[in-house]
Amino acid sequence: MQRDLVAKNIGLVGVHLRHHTGFLTTAQRQNQWSDFFQEGCLGLIRAVATYGENNPIPFAAWALRRIHMYVSRAMLREREAAHASENIGFLLDESAHARVRRHSIARLCATQSIESLGADDLEMINEPPPTIGERLREKYERAAHHAARMAQRRATERGDREVLVRILMEERFLVPDEHSRGGLRQIARDTDSSFARVLHCERQMASAIRNILQADPEFVELQRQAKENLFGVAMLIDNRLEARLAATCTLEFARRLHRVTPEFRSALLERLWAKCANELSVAAARIFVRLPWQDREEVLQPDAA
Predict the structure, then answer these.
(1) One digit per residue, pLDDT tens: the chain, 305 residues?
(2) 77-86 burial: b if 16+ Cβ within 10 Å, else e
(3) 198-210 burial, b if ≥16 CB within 10 A, otherwise e?
(4) At how many degrees (to 10) do helices 96-108 and 26-50 cross?
(5) Burial tier of 47 (Cβ tally within 10 Å: 0-12, 13-18, 19+)
(6) 140-177 burial, b if ≥16 CB within 10 A, otherwise e?
(7) How far apart are CA 268 and CA 264, in angstroms?
(8) Full 3-state SS string of the chain
């Protein structure tokens, strides 16, 4: 079953390479096509191994993301190797022997079932960490969905705000390629709206997305890292960068906790409680037991109401 799924979708690797290696010279494509193709096959194999039967995402979409991750990592590795003599960046720890073995696994899966692979073999094709570009895109899409929910809650006399927002999301905000986005005039015709109304709604949503992203310290830090790093948005988010992002967010959390209004602070703590209630309960109990008895009494007092 899994072998058949790999065989039926092997063409996705070639499709991805044709669309994402256009910046390479003809000589580079001829020299590196085989390596990139094998890496794409590893991404396809990983997609098959992790795709559940009840997954609501179409398999092609699921596989293309993993193919892109593997090919992008291979391209980044090639760039790092090219600049190694200048000591720019850090080299990924992958020997030539390991690379050959990974490609052998890709060829092996063309004739055998994935279940026949051992644990060590599967470890060789684990998903690589995401790139800065992928994390930024994911954050943008999350911000867009949040902005859409806010826009849909705005009441209008016509009562079709939800439909207009949904079409703007599908035709404009979630389409990465600007040239492939639907035109505002066509959206106005499809929704029986005026051009001004559609434009106003789009501008409101775009402004909300910008505000959400500008308030996200991790998004701002990722943009800064992409500008300062040689590889830009193609830079992998390794453990060191993840730790830096976590530290940046923690500092911003502490700043907001001390400088915002009591109402906002309560909302902030409620959202934190929803994510880690057990850990917070243990930490709060450790703090509470060290309080003077007068403070413990005050904390446990019932509300005046």
Answers:
(1) 677 777 788 888 887 777 766 545 555 555 667 778 888 888 888 888 888 777 777 888 888 878 887 887 777 666 655 544 343 333 334 444 444 445 555 555 554 555 555 555 544 455 567 788 888 988 998 999 999 999 988 877 777 788 899 999 989 998 877 777 889 999 999 889 999 999 999 999 999 999 999 999 999 999 999 998 877 887 888 888 999 999 999 999 999 988 888 888 899 999 999 999 999 999 999 999 999 989 988 889 876 43
(2) bbebeeeeee
(3) beebbeebeebbe
(4) 60
(5) buried
(6) beebbeebbeebeeeeeeeeebeebbebbbebbbeeee
(7) 6
(8) CHHHHHHHCCHHHHHHHHHHCCCCCHHHHHHHHHHHHHHHHHHHHHHHHHCCCCCCCCHHHHHHHHHHHHHHHHHHHHHHHHCHHHCCCCCCCCCHHHHHHHHHHHHHCCCCCHHHCCHHHHHHCCCCCCEHHHHHHHHHHHHHHHHHHHHHCCCCCCCCHHHHHHHHHHHHHCCCCHHHCCCHHHHHHHCCCCHHHHHHHHHHHHHHHHHHHHCCHHHHHHHHHHHHCCCHHHCECCHHHHHHHHHHHHHHHHHHHHHCCHHHHHHHHHHHHHHCHHHHHHHHHHHHCCCCHHHHHHHHCCCCC
